[in-house]
User: Fold these one by one.
Assistant:
Number 1:
Amino acid sequence: MRDGQRIPLARRCKTVSLSGRAGASWWGQLKETAMIPDARPAPAFTLEDKRLMRHFSYVGGKWVGGEAHFAVTDPATGHVVGEVARLDGSGATAAVDAAQAAFPVWSGMLPQERSAILRRWFELMQQHKEDLSRIMTAEQGKPLSESRGEIDYAASFVEFYAEEAKRPNIEGVTSHLPDAEVELWREPVGVAALVTPWNFPAAMLTRKAGAALAAGCTVVAHPSAETPFSALALAELAERAGLPAGVFNVVTGHAPEIVEPWTEDPRVRLLSFTGSTEVGRLLYRQSAATVKTLVMELGGHAPLIVFDGADLDRAVTEAIKAKFATSGQDCLAANRIYVQRDVYDAFCARFAKATQALAVGAGFDDPDIGPLMNERAVAKQEEQVADALARGARLLCGGERLAQGPLFYAPTVLADVPDDALIFREETFGPVAAIAPFDTEEEVIARANDTEYGLVAYLHAADPRRIYRVARALQFGMVAVNRTKVTGAPIPFGGTKQSGLGREGARLGMEPFTEVKYVCRDWG
């Protein structure tokens, strides 16, 4: 397939949903994701560098496609952003073929050479930040300023791992044998499969790919079918940066047709997945036969706890950030807000007022809140709100769809939410905040930990002894104290329980992409 060659379009269509966090299951809902005709015109959407808008998969250093395409739509307008090649299992296998063939070349390079290429990739991302942000807003719907922030975040992983690539770990060990010298080497595992979601289509890819490439692995990546253009733009920049053919492959299509062959292929030695816990369990089972290394960042159900000694204004400001970033479509979103009874009414009043002040609109208008990703996500908000109200919760604001379009839901605040409400038992993934009072420290710790998830928890308190006790008692992989933002390239991101396996980011993020080789030399 020549670069840019037109492929016949079997039918014009859009994808309802294939993957992501809003409770979606690729395999279980495959029938629901049938391609639906859509002939609405493309939106006014311009780029300075039009070559970043790629419509083909990137395999073995070539832009390839087939007979089938699918259309990607802007969730704010329903307009078609563009058509993307739909590859199948043969395309997925071809990507593994290319990655396997490229592995000896890439892993055999000097670490400094890999580092220089990654550094150039980072610089190109910075250079084309505005175009990458516009692509993301067009396909994902998030406010433009949030898209710009994500591109900075995504680029930071490439920069970080460009530096880490120069520091391969060879560790000396005190020998237990006479006349023997012992060393431990870290070597790349081989081909790594990366499966990324729609809510952070650039950062989730670079967090995985940066670590894999720095370690010397080659990559086959599958972006969500709802947001493939961000990944394809990154592939274009990776090619410009000098990544050899076959080192970094991006395969677009329907997740079951792409990912299942990777779980069955013994040449794929590692699978890194970000998405729902439900799909994570399925991939865990499918990967068992080939005994793959697994890195999984799965669901979250974060508690946010406000004690009576906390700075209330700060707690409200940070709770707004923790709940409504990415329109609430974030695994780190504060799903359960617990406030100590003495300050409960004051917190609810201030939080509801701040929520009502949030601007809602299309991503290119740069509001506070954009559209949700699909109809199923909106329906979930309606279901959870109705359930909470039926169980005695109070509606402080919102609770309805908005006139901007079918995927816009009003920022909503529910108070007095009981623990048995759906919104307190399952991920929300939308702009609905649920608040409940508590009385004692022991009580709120037990309620916060009463979940299968363990990704992040937020804590607002003034007493340092209480902060220490509660942070130690919370069963979560990350705890944010008196703030919301805690993530970044240098920190190990991940959770406990059914929120995932392993860590991403930091030096620890490279470790799953390597195997330890023990070498024992006898000089005699």
Number 2:
Amino acid sequence: IRRPPRSTQGVSSAASDVYKRQLLFEAKIVRELDDLAIDAMKITSFDLMQKAGESALNELLENYGTPNLLHVFCGAGNNGGDGYVVAAMAAAKNIPVHIYEFGQAQRMSEATLKARSLCIEGSAEFLEFSSSCDLSEGFIVDGLIGTGFKGDLKNSFAQAIECINGSFLPILSIDIPSGVCSNTGAVSTSAIRADLTVTFVGAKQGLFTGRGPEFSGDITFDSLDIPESVLQKKSPSAELMSLENLLESMPDSDSSAHKYQRGHCMTIGGDLGTGGASLLAAQASLKIGSGLSSLATRPEHVSACLVRQPEIMACGVVSGQQLEPLLQKPTVLVVGPGLGRSSWSEQMLQKAMATNLPLVVDADALNIIADGRVVTDFSHRSWVITPHSGEAARLLGITPAEVESDRFSAVLRLQEKYKATIILKGPGTLISSSLEDPYKICPYGNSGMATAGMGDILSGIIGGLIAQGMDLQAASELGVCLHSFAADRAAELSGRKGLLATEVFDHLRELINPQRQEFP
């Protein structure tokens, strides 16, 4: 697994199905898979450790070439054992190796002690760590803390991480960057900023959401030749989405279809001063292929809308009563972009929630719901909600920091409370509409997307897909990945800084029309 996925190198054919679907696991499940694999393959824990260490070293050499010096930081756990194997194998290849130990031998497992003894018997050099140690050249291997970490770092580990990150040398992390929670992607104080992370047996879900992507660099996965029959004994907790696969579900454009058969998406929003947000959402529903797109907004915005996008049927409404007859024609409603929190805003949302139409609810519509100003029976509502961490926090009555400390838990709580398809936006956007199925994680997107209007366009894309007949979960998955991938293409073309939301439109169209006819 790489972000975005680049190759299947290092993955056994026996695990090809698991790899193809890019399944992710919690750390506890991966440890259980380790034990099952050891029994099924009739090997020892040390044998598995050797496989992991060899895989990590091969990735290092393949990606960076042979280093003139290797600094290996080892903790007392099995993660440190993998590091000792890397050090021993590198030394056997006549690569100079410095080992820095963080943990007492009496706390090490039998496998880790055996790996350490290989280094003692070989030519690796053991050095005592200090904040002034020489990391001016070479390459760093991070085997400090494994997948069991959560909470705060001990001072010695914090000092080592600060020193490693401050060296500006290339860093490979084994299984997960030290300091990152493998289950949540949270970082409490600091963590290794890896250039490459090699993860084994089952890819860890925390690598791909929250702050995990920020610290993991490129990510590659090796099943260590564990049979697929073993991997199938445990259920994944999450799954990385693939735009290539999701595009297969893109609604076909039947040559005989007319606009009314391709759905009608209505956007409701655009209070005074925020008309652009609602216009972006309405535009996005057209750009993704909705047959009709209408906009119910403040009358002051209608002229600007018609100048900007005359294909949108813009209606000025001053009250909920005036909106009500317009709700007879759409097949889906997008509510919230630029909605504001005025009495007008509340009326718009109330009328939308009173319909039986599927809804995509975003922005201030979520804030009005969080304030308790619009009350409805969520259990009978067919809807998608698309909060970022701040909006999710208000919906749950907690802080944004609490949401980001465990994004998976936040999605679960949102689903339990609001009975919706949840899209928790942010690095590694999460999607879930069922308490039983694995979370879906978007592997695309970039920091340039943190700008005005991006969320409005996403809401419009999802609404436009629902209008064309896609179910809420499928539309959410495809919409999120199309939006993020288009933003990646825009950033590659012109850079992340200054990326405008409207710049995703051209790339979006290219993605949904991959085989455009060319004439000589």
Number 3:
Amino acid sequence: MTATLTFHGAARTVTGSCMEVVAGSARILIDYGLFQGSRTLETLNHGPLPFDVAGLDAVILTHAHIDHAGLLPRLTALGYAGTIWCTPQTADLLRPMLADSGRIHEYEAERRNRRRDRAGDEPITPTYTEADALAAVALARPVALEAWFEPAPGLRARLWNAGHILGAASVELEADGVRLLFSGDLGPDNKTFLPNPETAKGFDHVVCEATYGDTSREKVTLHQRRRHLAEEINTALAAGGNLVIPAFALERTQELLLDIAMLSKAGAIGNAQLFVDSPLANRVTEVFRAHVGELEDTGGRDVFAHPAIHTTQSALDSMRLNSVSGAIIIAASGMCEAGRIRHHLVHNLPRRDSTILFVGFQAQGSLGRVILDGAQRVRISGRDIAVRSGIRQISSYSAHADRNELLDWITAAGPIAGSLFLDHGEQDAIDVLAAEARTRNLATSIITPEMGDCYRLAPGKPARRIRRGAQSRRSAVGRDWQNDYAELATGLKRRLAAIEDDRARSRAIARMRRVLDDYDRNRKRHS
């Protein structure tokens, strides 16, 4: 018998991580994450599941980020009652992360149903609820790093430190005589809080993430990173407005809190006041406090308490920040796709004296990516928002390994007797990493799977694709028509107003209407 490996997510995109391994009668998932980005990609979160929940034996979870864990509650909502294997730290983080995600799904469904532009449409139901999320949390079973366990009959696995976030792990799996290694998300060398990634050696097949496969970052020390952050803070606040930082609630916010506390203590940022407007980030910080003895760069002390750091809880507290100036505001989500960051963008993007500072990866099709790519106007919750604020970026806070660090990890895991799979990356990043891996002869077979592709795995031989994914899933990757529509709609009124007179404007509108009418007539003719 041979094993099979199917990529249900994060194939040529960076969210929705999910792989299915079948060996004999055993069937397990490696991660089950939420898709984030374009509206088309997000439809995969609540569409038909690409695997059979009833036949699922177990889930092995690499870490608690929502793009790797965020669809676990869908499993429990559909009756899954098996084990979710993970590290103890990941198990502790799942409660705040998944419960918050459930509340967001409930709130977003309610909010969209109230929008005037959805009047008469079918009501949106949440992808899952907070109750579904808590049911998933109850299935977590902690296991220590490098300790062997049996996720399903005939399978053996152990976890290795991935150096990405608190509790993040790579997965070593023995399935039907085949040795597999799944990187999960790998952290950079010398990351705050965590030791460098580790791995075993000598595998039949290795699956490695490629988020920054096309990027070679300049090596930056902790001191240099803090100095750069201080420069951004001082420049932004000197303009008189706010410095708004979209940040992932897990790990990125805690790194920023540590650095800002150190800078404030050293007098490097004056009397700057920081507001953490993320109840989730505050709850995650409590988990970090509980594990502070395991974290590097803390000396075993609570490094997150400082007079300059203020936290908000209620929505009213959050709204009060709309009237402040000269403050640092950290809010989630990191890619601006949901949460309180969106109303801070509504209030600060139009201000020429405010600054938006990006400190994390922005997936293709996400609002954060649209802003970072230079959009002059954006759509947020149905509103047309002008972008007049400063837009800045710091890359040294990345929780992901860069190209050279990924290649070093792959080398350390070698020799690879069968195939090297590159996933969890956009197409350009994967192509560059694949080319460099070929140049270094890291594997004779290098595969860049698409969504839904299924491969047959054998010991010591290249993997063979036995099934392609559905076109509907493969084509969901990247920008979609709704990105294009938002880009057109945000500037449409302004462009019409720039036309010389009312009669010419009416002619322009009539032409646009004729284009849509022609499409409608052709569709009916061929239906």
